[in-house]
Amino acid sequence: MRRTPTSLTPVRRTLRHVGLATLLVVGGLAAAGTLPAAADSGTPTATEESASPGLLDAMRRDFGLTRAQAEARLAAEERATALEPTARRTAGAAYAGSWFDADSGKLTVAVTADASGATVRALRDAGTAVRTVEHSARRLDAAKARVDRLDAPAGVSGWHVDPAANSVVVDVVAGERADNDVQRFVDRAREAGPVTVRTVAAAPETFAAGTVGGDPYYTGNVRCSIGFSVHGGFVTAGHCGRAGAGVSGWDGSYIGTFQGSSFPDNDYAWVSVGSGWWTVPVVLGWGTVSDQLVRGSAEAPVGASICRSGSTTHWHCGTVLAKNETVNYSQGAVHQMTKTSVCAEPGDSGGSFISGDQAQGVTSGGWGNCSSGGQTWFQPVNEILNRYGLTLHTA
């Protein structure tokens, strides 16, 4: 990894072998992302520029879409992502959350009954669907904050605000709902505000793994995946290593050191890069899909499609299910997580979640696997950048 490649072809062959660790390895790789060519009829759209063929292929595989449907969904999600901050400001105190509806291709904005007619018209004129609900986002967030102060038993998987349900949703592991500790927790949670209880298949676990040869990076006997390049290093999951721990690459050579790490409470970290390694704004497809350039970190709304890259299971796609969820791992609760329907397996921890060409977060944990399915949580990347004063490396 210390040599400078002389041509792009051998670089890409090496990158596909080492997987996501190659976000850090070779000069000139920023040009390696494969993007669709402009249509013959004119200038390419933003979606055509941001969606690699590999990303579209992954969406076709995981969502059962045609290429045209995948392109249309990405375009609709791009519009919804851009519209969400404006919709929140327009709704003001009446804002009760928002989410992307894949069937209509629109951002749905929930507002309380005291929203003025002018506000509702402004939201609809902007292109959103509007739903009237009972509880404001402020009230739901306050209720969740009160639940966050409770000690959760192992039978409680986590909890989050669900804007579509207009409630704080508490997830209980199947078979544990009758447990006395779980019942006491649910009773206390309901005292905090509007709460709905749902059942999930299993408790969440982190996705670190023991050392296996040929994978992206190691700290001690733990293997994890690189998330996104930042100027000076990369971001990843906090449970993969403590501050001060050294990091080795797929080939055993020294990469750098964990400069900051937080787990539990949070699950994020950043690693400095040196010793002949450097950063590039690319999420790689491991030869399964084409490489994807990273152009920013605009946050995708609930309901939007999202894809994950990791050293064990490579590329998989799903949807954003919830934001600001508290996940109750056996090591302790982790806050402000985003839940997705994307699968993951041990070794994928720290890897990239991306929507179009926008970085979303780093893989934390989940339940299930990529054979039978499951759910996975990520720590939002913007929170990591703000916490450590980092700048995302973008194309």
UniProtKB/TrEMBL annotation:
Annotated Peptidase S1A alpha-lytic prodomain domain residues: 135-188
Keyword S-adenosyl-L-methionine: no
Stretches assigned to coiled coil: none
Listed SUPFAM superfamilies: Trypsin-like serine proteases (SSF50494)
Keywords linked to the UniProt accession: Disulfide bond, Hydrolase, Protease, Serine protease, Signal, Zymogen
Gene3D superfamilies: 3.30.300.50, Trypsin-like serine proteases
Family: Belongs to the peptidase S1 family.
UniProt protein name: S1 family peptidase
Gene source species: Streptomyces flavalbus
